[in-house]
Amino acid sequence: MKFTRRQLLASGAVATTLVGASAILINRKNNRMTLKNASNEFYRSLPIPELLDANKLGNNIELTAQEGMTEIVPSYSTPTYGYSSSYLGPTIRIQRGDIVNMKITNALDSVTTVHWHGLFVPSELDGGPYGVINPGQVWQPSLHINQPASTAWYHPHPHGDTARQVYMGLAGLIYVEDGSSNDLGLPNRYGLDDLPIVLQDRFFTADGDMVYDGSPMAVMHGSRGNTLIVNGTYGPVAEVPKGMVRLRFLNGANARNFRLIFDDSRLMQVIANDNGFIANPVAVSELTIAPGERYEVLVDFSDGTVSALLTYPDQKGRPATGLSDSLNELMTDIKDILTPVMRFDPVDDVSVVTRDLPLKLVELPTPVVPADIKHRTFILDSMTAVNMPMTGQMEPMAGMDHSQMGGSMAMEGKSGLAMGMKMGINGKTFDMTRVDAEVKLGNKEIWELRGTEMAHPFHIHGASFRILNVDGAVPPEHQSGNKDTVLVNEWVQLLVSFDQPTSPSRPFMFHCHILEHEDAGMMGQYVTV
Ligand code: C2O
Ligand code: CU
Ligand code: CU
């Protein structure tokens, strides 16, 4: 049964139940999946964030971090944050070779920063925890863009308050362009056949309020919501041309891994990783995207069939023990239950439709490991409560006062952070006064990462890497490109290129991109010398 958007609107279908009630069951016999309660899903068109084309704006981009109210779930408005918007921020399109002047105004009453995740700029301009923008203040970095076409993003990174601010809605996409999309004949009409897809989850109460769970349990495993949203909307539909459509996926969730699959098992041709194109399109029917990661895929809708994008439960996030009931429900072991994410409705489009898949995308040399390369090992630990009582007084993070922690969404005095829950790397919790690694500018190093207890998405600022090894095997082909974020199950080996300078007072970060883990100290600093 298919519904058009108009039929659904006319029928007055409203989400009376939130995600969970609307699971999809696989019928093992014919391997088809059927939508239960389809009418309760997919009733609003996919919002497309405004496009700020830097070229057309004289390379001047202005953003304001601000509060607002957003109807994420229909009929309910909830307090949110956004960049020049009530939720999320505009997509910024920038050209390789340009110098882009950013002007960020902080209209929030918390300290914030803006980090360019995936842009390669000196640490001075990186917008990590050192790039403090106080309430009412303005930050104006000029970014020299010199990197291949890729999908990057921006989000806040204030010390100890990143998870809450991102959860409230602060995030946006950056498209770096260098002409290659045109040369390769890839779909690149923004919002038409080149769609930004920001995947997130949020927790909504039965009253429709979005709440942030900062409890110790949520900090320990990462905060997961009960409602999957795309571009800030629950259950959207995108009308797409009957041809190749490019989807630029960002996992912008605080902690949830998405494991995407189409209900008709339609293939996704992966064309790009975090930092640019891979050598050739690689077809996958399932795609796992960890928090912070980006993938670009092409999907062929030329058959004209309506197709739903679904996700498996987040089993990678499932720790060994100690789940609360709500987490248990979210991270169920029942593999056959899939949750709808969004739907695609192919429509007749009079303008140009891309039909062909390029065979070759970019020259991607096989990684060469120099014989004398430096190795480092980082163990991502949940050093939770080793010396830390689960109850006790507020312990402000170093260098912060109380007003910067929490804010309205954190459960006052009860958040895991406030209770002193700590995470670490190699047994050390994050310390802004300690530099954890000195690397030689322009060198490559092998970084080996080991996860404990659960999967951790690991991210390095100011550096790009190739995956050499995943749990002892070569990485899957669709992850063969340049990346800045990788999901660490057991262990991975990365060949990391360090090409951005740091100033002595401003190291670059490396950390777990489960934002609760990052805030709780699963983060370190490196300098290039
Ligand atoms: Cu996307 Cu240090 O973060
Ligand atoms: Cu980053
Ligand atoms: Cu982690």
Main beta-sheet strand count, sense and barrel state: 8 strands, mixed
Quick one: CATH superfamily of the largest domain? Cupredoxins -  blue copper proteins
CATH architecture of the largest domain: Sandwich
Residue share in β-strands = 35-45%
Q: Quick check: average pLDDT?
A: 85
Cα gyration radius (Å): 22 Å
**What is the CATH class designation of the largest domain?**
Mainly Beta
Number of E-type strands: 36
Describe this structure in words.
The structure is a single chain. With 529 residues, the chain is mainly beta. The chain folds into three domains: 184 residues, Immunoglobulin-like (Sandwich), CATH 2.60.40.420; 129 residues, Immunoglobulin-like (Sandwich), CATH 2.60.40; 155 residues, Sandwich (Immunoglobulin-like), CATH 2.60.40.420. Helix content is 7%, strand content 38%. It has six helices and 36 strands. Strands 1, 2, 3, 18, 20, 23, 25 and 26 form an eight-stranded mixed sheet that branches. Strands 14, 15, 16, 17, 19, 21, 22 and 24 form an eight-stranded mixed sheet that branches. The N terminus is likely disordered. Bound molecules: CU-O-CU linkage and copper (II) ion (CU) (2 copies).
